[in-house]
Amino acid sequence: MIIREALKAKISIPAKQNTIDLILTENGLVPENEYNPADETARRNMDLSQAGLILWICTNPKSVKELDYQITQQDITDLLSLRAGILKRWGVNDEFADEGPTIEIISELW
User: Fold this and answer.
1) Which distant-in-sequence residues (6+ apart) come within 8 Å of 36 by Cβ?
2) Which of 10, 31, 53, 74 is 20 to 30 Å from 80 by CA-CA measure?
3) What is the C-alpha separation between 46 and 94, in angstroms, rounded?
């Protein structure tokens, strides 16, 4: 199976081939090459590509209807959680992680 098809299999939401190829190339993969899951570097780059494609999906509408103009957004909460898990697996910082409020000086609490 070629790398492009492997990424499509991991994400069942349709995306244009140019988008998939760009994301794979940005992560050091050649879309037409054979996917070798036994190679740890290839698995890491594939997972990072999957995380990139998830982010792309989150920023694009699910559907657009022109009559009465309606845009339906993706439910991104679960997708971003999946992306965070993929990035954590490989030790990559998730710049979109919600870490909540941070207490910096506790002497001002009382």
Assistant:
1) 42
2) 31
3) 17
Long-range contacts of the stretch 9-15 (C-beta < 8 A, 24+): 10/46, 10/50, 11/50, 11/53, 11/54, 11/57, 13/57, 15/53, 15/56, 15/57
The candidate with the shortest Cα–Cα distance to 45, out of 6, 1, 94, is: 6
Q: Cβ-count burial of 19 within 10 angstroms (0-12 exposed, 13-18 middle, 19+ buried)?
A: middle
Instruction: Name the DSSP letter for residue 13.
Output: S
Amino acid at 10: K
pLDDT tens digit sequence for 17-66: 999 999 999 999 999 999 999 999 999 999 999 999 999 988 887 777 78
**Phi, psi of 63, deg, nearest 5:** -155, 155
CA distance 56 to 75: 13
